[in-house]
């Protein structure tokens, strides 16, 4: 089970999304997951081995690394991507349930067109609209929470070259040097920018759905 | 055979599960197996190479590591996930056996054309009778395995927290030696995450168990108050007249009615009645 399988699972959801939702999914897979797998993981690959402290004291390097990097960027991004893509499965489950209900009604004798049932694009209205809107809302919340977690844990989005550590067993204060700080800062900013774009897409999709439903209602009443 | 292979095997079981069972399977694959593969394995990747002891005594490092980590978290989680997902295969085997029986029945009653044989393979089995018992047993085993592994984790690594420093006095370490673990905070975060998802899975399994029992008792109540249900006539009519299209047939048998139910309602082919064997 890896990113490829997640892509297969979410690809199915794509059919029932709006156009903005499809763009969002593409941005997620190409500019985030793919960049994470082919580039970012290599940059952070030697983060602990090449974290060097100016001391011979055994254990000081481990402790300082743990103090300054409680959870690695790569793992945070992996968790962020998993959490952000999962609400789409709510929509998939709802669509599957709607189809199941239609088939049940057909079996009980109501007239429904078979071809339409199999191939139809499910329209986002009624309870499905609420499920879809909730899933977008959750996506936005998860993105915002993770962006805040990043900011809080790493005091901004920049990777310092040098950190000063005085955790036991380090004697006094010790200079520790982070490996590839500029490259890491570049990728952090890139992932942040793409995360921002995804949030904008989600907000746009939310507005689009709300406006669509508001425009439909006056038409119904008139 | 890897996690993807397990996913393929278990996706087949998904069709015959309840809704809660499907949610449980999604949680297992996305929040446990996937997190294990893409994140947790790289956190524990350097657990031995970055385990440092404050000594130059050869062998002390290895001995202390072995003393404090008899079995790594990653391996324990892998075992847990394999054991927890495997009871679903009991259900798959039972379903395969039932499908085999239905095919034999079709051959005996002279409906052994390829169309009917395909339908037997494709339709979703109802969880009733002996399949209900198999399904309930699989859920009970899942619960048991989850609980056992959570207990093992607690025994081996008290408090689920990874310490930064451990003090080791195993031979050949001279006196007491400080040993430092790599990435303890990140490891604690992932241990707690996996513990939380494990608990969510336990709750889902318990909910599924309660749902199955309640549904079985409700069905028994329904049967005792209305012994002759009117479902048979619809299926009987469909069998006696020609099918309009293959797709109608597919849709009918994809639902909870089984072909066996259809044939059972024909006179002369009565088998044991549909009863709740659980209550």
Question: How would you sum up this structure, described in words?
Answer:
The complex is a heterodimer of chains A (222) and B (279). Chain A is mainly alpha-helical. Chain A has one domain (3-11, 18-215): Gap junction channel protein cysteine-rich domain (de novo design (two linked rop proteins)). In chain A, 69% of the residues lie in helices and 5% in strands. Chain A has eight helices and three strands, in the order H-H-E-H-H-H-H-H-E-E-H. Chain A has a three-stranded antiparallel β-sheet, with helices on one face. In chain A, helix 2 (19-43) packs antiparallel against helix 8, helix 4 (73-85) packs antiparallel against helix 7 (127-153) and helix 7 (127-153) packs antiparallel against helix 8 (181-221). Chain A is elongated and about 80 Å long. The mean pLDDT of chain A is 86. With 279 residues, chain B is mostly helical. Chain B has one domain: Gap junction channel protein cysteine-rich domain (de novo design (two linked rop proteins)). Chain B has eleven helices and three strands. The interface between A and B is large, with 40 and 47 residues.
Topology, element by element:
The complex is a heterodimer of chains A (222) and B (279).
Chain A: H1 3-13, H2 19-43, E1 52-53, H3 60-68, H4 73-85, H5 87-107, H6 114-119, H7 127-153, E2 162-165, E3 174-177, H8 181-221
Chain B: H1 3-14, H2 19-43, E1 52-53, H3 60-68, H4 73-85, H5 88-109, H6 114-122, H7 130-156, E2 165-168, E3 177-180, H8 184-225, H9 231-240, H10 246-254, H11 259-264
Antiparallel strand pairs in B: 1-3, 2-3
Helix pairs in contact in B: 1-2, 1-5, 2-4, 2-8, 4-7, 5-6, 5-7, 6-10, 7-8
Q: Which two chains touch over the largest interface?
A: A-B, 40 and 47 residues
Please identify which CATH superfamily of chain B we are dealing with.
Answer: Gap junction channel protein cysteine-rich domain
Q: What low-confidence regions of chain A span 5 or more consecutive residues with pLDDT below 50?
A: none
Write out the strand line-up for the largest beta sheet of chain B, numbering strands in chain order: 1-3-2
> Superfamily at the CATH H level of chain A?
Gap junction channel protein cysteine-rich domain
Number of strands of chain A: 3
Name of the CATH first level of chain A? Mainly Alpha
Distance between the termini of chain A: 52 Å
Average residue-wise pLDDT of chain A: 86
User: How many domains in all of chain A?
Assistant: 1
GO molecular function, one term (chain A): gap junction channel activity
Keywords (chain A): Cell junction, Cell membrane, Gap junction, Hearing, Membrane, Transmembrane, Transmembrane helix
Function (chain A): One gap junction consists of a cluster of closely packed pairs of transmembrane channels, the connexons, through which materials of low MW diffuse from one cell to a neighboring cell.
Domain Connexin cysteine-rich (chain A): 142-209
